[in-house]
Amino acid sequence: MSTTTGSGRLTIGEVADKIFGPEVPFRLEAYDGSVGGRKDSSIVVRIDNERGLRYLVTAPGELGLARAYVQGDLTLKGADPGDPYDLLAVFLDKQLVQRPALSELPQILRSLGISSFRPPELPQEEAVPAWRRQVEGMRHSKRRDAEAIHHHYDVSNAFYEMVLGPSMTYTCACYPEDHSTLEEAQAHKYDLVARKLGLQPGMRLLDVGCGWGGMVRHAVKHYGVTALGVTLSQEQAAWAQQRIKEDGLDDRAEVRFTDYRDVTESGFDAVSSIGLTEHIGIKNYPAYFTFLHSRLRDGGRMLNHAITRPDNAGNGLKRGGFINRYVFPDGELAGVGTIVSTMQDNGFEIRHVEDLREHYARTTRAWCKNLSANWDACVREAGEGTARVWGLYMAGSSLNFERNNIQLHQVLGVKVGADGDAHYPLRHTFGV
């Protein structure tokens, strides 16, 4: 590949200036020795090899950047790989790409060379496109949902322990005070859910998408209930059952490795769904809420806790984007209005709605800091590519929650009896 200025060819740095403009807020260094962008910027992005350039050329935008970064072909000099928040903030603040003049395109294409347009192999951390995932079944079939959950959650329990902290809770925390720690905020979140559900000793709780069993254990320990949690992650279920046994709760707590649709028990007093709705698929919401409504007794409550869109148009996750390919294959987000409407249309009376958007921004910042503090151990445990994916994902999530590009809503519904009795107090009793 030619990267010299002879014969009218541009260096990589000069091509970058044509595409980004010379006032882009970073300095670009390339493996051909050229430089582009702001020469005096403290933020330095380096394309380390030809493969990195090919990722950028064959998938312009966030996916190409992610591929090059995850593979280590694009590096951020001076940036913390576990917490690239400051760098991503610069990228989100600016409209970086500008369209070169048509007269310049032939020179740009000639300078890059034909080999630059040959797609490299995909990083092993990237899920295959949705059309290729049809071999696992139709979108949101039990088999395909299981594969999607396996891709994200069955990384390594040890890795998650280092990133999430002792609570092993991979959902939005709720910070009771400005100075509260992550662990205090996660415990407070579980307690808030328990109070919204009106849990009392002797009640039965079903927790769908239970993760490592945090809600199950909290409810059994502190509210005296009997709880069943279900997850599609075999590693989560194994970890949770071991922890339940160690805590002496196995007479009243169980985490089962199964699809929530295979739960046969009914008559539960309460259902909690914390971070599962994102995996369900919007078209499946009616069946999802109908099924969970059928698991409850009359007067039973359901708390749905989910990442949401700031509007009710579309599914919120770009097909082929970074999140869809690296973090949540087949994931979909709806606005809270869609969730509320679907719950209402499938039997629930809505009693309370709350947005915890700012709390999730704090939660993901705390996870980034944990990843950064344990970077070397996380890389040894899960590989540098996975660790880089997590740094990008969590830092980017923090920014998007802060800027109201995504939200987090808890919606509380009640199964009202045929006589109209919701078994609900005249006013809320959960202290919010």
Automatic annotation (TrEMBL):
Residues annotated as domain Polyketide synthase-like methyltransferase: 159-413
In terms of Pfam families, this protein maps to: CMAS (PF02353)
Q: Name one GO molecular function term.
A: methyltransferase activity
Q: Which CDD domains match?
A: AdoMet_MTases
Q: Name one GO biological process term.
A: lipid biosynthetic process
Q: Which SMART domains match?
A: PKS_MT
What keywords appear on the UniProt entry?
Lipid metabolism, Methyltransferase, S-adenosyl-L-methionine, Transferase
Q: Which family does it belong to?
A: Belongs to the CFA/CMAS family.
Name of this protein: Cyclopropane-fatty-acyl-phospholipid synthase
Which species expresses this protein natively? Luteipulveratus halotolerans
